[in-house]
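for the writeup, i need someone to sanity check this before i put it in the appendix. the sequnce is what the collaborator sent (i think, or maybe the updated version? ugh). structure was predicted straight from it, no edits. if anything looks off just tell me and ill rerun, i have time this weekend
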Amino acid sequence: MLQRLMLTLCLLMPPTCIPAHEPLIGVGTTLKADPIPSAKVHCLQVPLATRRHYPNPDGSCVFLSMGVSGIQSNDPKCQYLPFDSAYGTAERGGANPERVAHVCAKRAIHAYNVTGKYSIPMARYAVATGRGCAIGFDHEHFQAVWGYDYARQVWLIWDNRYPDYITEYSESEFEAMHDRSGRWVVVNERPGDRIPRPVEW
């Protein structure tokens, strides 16, 4: 059973998001336009103009990904993590599960901070319930799960190195890219107010 507050299964990992490696070429397909949420496509709805405020010039990928997830969950304490705000000074630089647990406790951010074999099930849970999910994805890097296309069985991922674009990955590509970073996700406890529902026109 999922515990309220923090579910922290921390493995000591080196700080992630040292931007020394280029993303893998030939893995994933960059979309020409943002996916449209529907009964078969569950995805975040963060406008391009908003996510352009979350580029990654300094290796702060964990907190940038958590920030975008916080927008979806309408949680300003999480949304403004990478910036100076009324909720605290900016959290920048690399991070590991231990640092994230400390920051969440300090700011009273309720999140599931999960490493190991339950990371992918937690990502699926996040998509199914409309929660934001920051995820280890690519070498020493964190991105955000944008959603999942259930009809085509592809994952949708937002990369803070390229904030304008959403990229889709097959199940096997997704698992390989997640393993490349190490199995770790941070899922907002609070679901978003934008869970897609089919609408008759």
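The mean pLDDT is 86. Residues 122 and 192 are 16 Å apart (CA to CA).
thx in advance!!
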